[in-house]
């Protein structure tokens, strides 16, 4: 996920949780977001997690990428078939629960949160108002049949959204260094083997059976 060289190394950064996992936290998604334009009075003392807005900032970041990129992609949006069903099938997370989970997963990669943590509460998900996240294998394989190219495409959208935050001299909240970007990408990219089914085709979700 080297800057401007996305798919090969980009992290499962926000990718992993969104495609199908859920994770735990009772708090609702907030409106905060990583803000590269906000001046920090003590940037050198802020952790990467804090510079990205902490829990609330990451949740909003994840939600924005999913809503504006993933769910508008003809192929990737098909992996969210349960989230667009009404009602959502029992045992499956809502979009809100997935978002909270995903943000927590990223926070854990930054050593600033805990995954899976407590169950995520969403009263709008009538069949499963509380959902506890699952490990990457059970939440993605074998039913989702995510191929390598699909994984890279998903992660590419995440990288695209993160790139504007990369700065040579980090002086503002919301900014990250290239080294931090690369380190996070490498750590999360390790999840690829738990998510991808070797040989799975590129394109819409090729589901093999109802989950």
Which key terms come to mind for this protein?
36% helix, single chain, disordered N terminus, two-stranded antiparallel sheet, 211 residues, Globin-like
Account of the protein in words:
- It is a single chain.
- The chain is mainly α and 211 residues long.
- The protein has a single domain (15-195), classed as Orthogonal Bundle (Globin-like).
- 36% of the residues lie in helices and 4% in strands.
- The protein is built from eight helices and four strands.
- Helix 3 crosses helix 4.
Beta content comes to under 5%
Order of strands across the widest beta sheet? Answer: 1-4
Dominant shape: globular
Poorly predicted ranges = 1-42
Helix content: 25-40%
List how many beta strands DSSP finds: 4
Return the average pLDDT rounded to an integer.
75
**In DSSP terms, counting alpha (H) and pi (I) runs of 4 or more, how many helices?**
8
Largest sheet: 2 strands, antiparallel
Distance between the termini: 32 Å
CATH class: Mainly Alpha
Please tell me the total number of domains. Answer: 1
**Structural class by helix and strand composition:** mainly alpha
């Amino acid at each position: 996920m080297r800057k401007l060289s996305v798919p090969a190394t980009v992290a499962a950064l926000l990718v992993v949780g969104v495609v199908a996992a859920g994770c735990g936290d009772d708090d609702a998604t907030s409106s905060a977001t990583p803000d590269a334009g906000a001046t920090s009075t003590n940037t050198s003392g802020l952790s990467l997690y804090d510079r990205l807005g902490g829990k609330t900032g990451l949740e909003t970041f994840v939600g924005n990428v999913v809503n504006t990129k993933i769910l508008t992609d003809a192929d990737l949006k098909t992996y969210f078939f349960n989230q667009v069903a009404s009602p959502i099938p029992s045992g499956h997370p809502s979009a809100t629960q997935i978002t909270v989970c995903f943000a927590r997963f990223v926070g854990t990669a930054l050593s600033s949160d805990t995954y899976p943590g407590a169950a995520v509460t969403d009263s709008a998900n009538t069949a499963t108002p509380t959902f506890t996240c699952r490990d990457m294998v059970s939440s993605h394989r074998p039913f989702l049949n995510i191929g390598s190219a699909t994984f890279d495409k998903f992660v590419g959208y995440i990288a695209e959204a993160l790139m504007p935050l990369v700065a040579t001299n980090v002086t503002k909240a919301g900014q990250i260094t290239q080294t931090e970007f690369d380190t996070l990408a490498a750590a999360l990219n390790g999840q690829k083997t738990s998510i991808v089914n070797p040989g799975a085709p590129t394109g819409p979700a090729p589901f093999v059976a109802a989950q």
